[in-house]
Amino acid sequence: MAQPPGGKKDSLAPVLLKSIPESKQTNFKGREIELFFNEYISVENLPQKVIVTPGTGLTFNYKIRPTSVYLKFNEPFKDNTTYTVSFTDAIKDATERNPATNLKLVFSTGTQLDSLSVSGKVTDLKTGKVVADALVGLYAVRDTLNALKEKPIYYSKTDTSGNFLMENIRAGGYELLAFNDANNNFLFNQQNERIGFLKDSINLTGNINGVELQLFSQNNSPAKISRTESRQDSYGITLDKGIERYQVNFRRKEDSIPSILASANQIKFFRNRATPDTIGVVLTVVDSIGTSTDLKQTLSFRDRSRRDKAEPFTAVSEPPQNDAVEKTFNWTLTFTKPVGRINKQLITILSDSTSSEEFDEGKIQWSNGQSMLSYPINSSARKDIRISLEEGAFMSVLEDSLKKTVFTYRILNPEDFGLLKGQVVSNAPNYIVELVNESGKVISREVNSKTYTFRNVRPGRYRLRLVIDRNNNGRWDTGNYQLKQEAEPIIYYPSIIQAKADFQFEGVDLEYSEKVNSK
Description:
single chain; 519 residues; five-stranded mixed β-sheet
């Protein structure tokens, strides 16, 4: 048996014919709700998708009938309260599963309906993109941090455009915030959820429209060691969050060995000489928001075995291989192990394959435990620059050599690139203008320049943003909900910038005004 073929495809959502109670009914005293539709229906995740405001922890049992949905609440509704039961997209037609969107039932247990509303949009602060399915909530004004332990009184979810609307709200004072409720428990989890909030409470006496909330990640919980990796010559410690910097204190100074920050959340130690099988250390790690944590760990190296293969000693360059560069640029090499020694006789810098320049060790700037090299290139080349490293040019602390490598860069032709310039219109004293590509990588930046110019912009799609550097530390800093400290603002130019070869973009202005005497 099967459904007969043919016929026009059903593209219509179920239509609500009537409900108990009726829409906008007052003096409702029951606990049972039923909605009746014009066709057979199906229901999806009703307990998770039904939103009841004000949020009072109400739970319900339900039955699905061919053309209706029946809900029986386990607790009575509060007196003199306006309730909104929103079904989001939980109810669909039975054949083509077209959802009945914006389906909600409003009623009051008192003599009148509350009619105030709050609407706006939620975006991601770092990317500027809209956030769908974010929880937006109103909380009672208290000294405690409501979102960590309490569910909101009124709440809504953002649509695919990041827009939200909360209606039928009672007049009064509220705290307004939003977060991406990853586990759907209506509580903010600072470790893996982003949050945005209004610093000051709102006194709701009329409708409020156009509220903008920007989500940011604050994760100020102490860093923890999530796993370790022991090898015969190295020991890796992986943390549960990224860090900015670290410091090592060895319990015995004579056990000191080199280490690097191998990635944003991994510290790696290198056993470059004879040491005990175990070494005690105390790590002081500092994350991106300045939270400092002390971690005790014992480094335990694995016994040597012929089956163990040594980790390769490699390096990544910036600019990358075969990139177009100006005649003067800063060349960096990031190594996978600390560098132990250099043989400058095995390093050659050639301009146009004819003119050579001596490599000067005195110009090197080292960072990250001598694993990141920065060297200024100042060439007279017209076509290309070649940096040749013979085997043995760089030796790691473990005495293995970087393999022979040649880095070739062509001298850029300005006609192959674009130029972007504009102004910053702001009363903020400190700010950063950044040009970022589609993956969010910063391509160029200028600090505190009222007029900025980005030259030699490769053809492609970019976004332009203004970072308000309130503490003047040269970077963006996140906020803290517990301290009611807002994240530093990031303002995006509203349009995507399509850079083209030999093309100038002028008048691309960024505007932002700091609130005077804001608390």
